[in-house]
UniProtKB/TrEMBL annotation:
The family this protein is said to belong to: Belongs to the pyridoxal phosphate-binding protein YggS/PROSC family.
Keywords from the named record: Pyridoxal phosphate
Domain Alanine racemase N-terminal: 34-228
Function: Pyridoxal 5'-phosphate (PLP)-binding protein, which is involved in PLP homeostasis.
Pfam families cross-referenced by the UniProt entry: Ala_racemase_N
Name of this chain's protein: Pyridoxal phosphate homeostasis protein
Cofactor: pyridoxal 5'-phosphate
Gene3D superfamilies: Alanine racemase
Glycoprotein is among the record's keywords: no
GO molecular function: pyridoxal phosphate binding
N6-(pyridoxal phosphate)lysine: residues bearing it: 42
Family annotation (InterPro entries): Ala_racemase_N (IPR001608), PLP-binding_barrel (IPR029066), PyrdxlP_homeostasis (IPR011078)
Amino acid sequence: MTDTTRREEIAAGLARVEADIAEACRAAGRRREELTLVAVSKTYPASDVRLLAELGVADVGENRDQEASAKAHECADLGLTWHFIGQLQTNKARSVVSYADVVHSVDRLRLVSALGREAVRAGREVTCLVQVALDGDPGRGGALPEEVPALADAVAGTGGLRLGGVMAVAPLGGDPARAFARLREISEAVRKTHPGADVISAGMSGDMTEAIANGATHLRVGTALLGRRKPLVR
């Protein structure tokens, strides 16, 4: 595939995603400016990230540190905002903090401590979102709803970190609208104590409309932009 053909593919995907977002915003009575599109580039090469940047995408998400760190380094000249959206082991905190501006998957106190320690060491401030488990499945990551207030307080009180808000993945096979409505309630509860924590990271390629209707501020979209996942980076 030529670079020109790939650029056209990605441009077409971006146009479709933007049209869907615009329609969902109209239905929800919201403005497009309220939403940040995070292009999830996992399994796709840095060349695709460059094409996305050329097309005006400024936020990129990755869920594996090894892949993310290499791409962030290769694309350091683009001035992108990098989002780490996958489950994160504490022993990867130093690496992730070196490039990630936002970590969407903070779900336990040990991780808060590790991220804060490495952010201070690196002289950086990293925005953290508390990931909420809406289905009670620990295998998919996330803190139980009742654990969220303490985690939010911990992030807000840790040097090197800034509490951005909350994140969730809709339960498999469940009603995404119901799940995102619950996330919105949790977000509102967090903001009573931390008014600036106004990020709601929710919605992917298949459930953007429901997320937008329930107050999402950040959409994590990969497949609709870049196509079906490949098993390995090309």
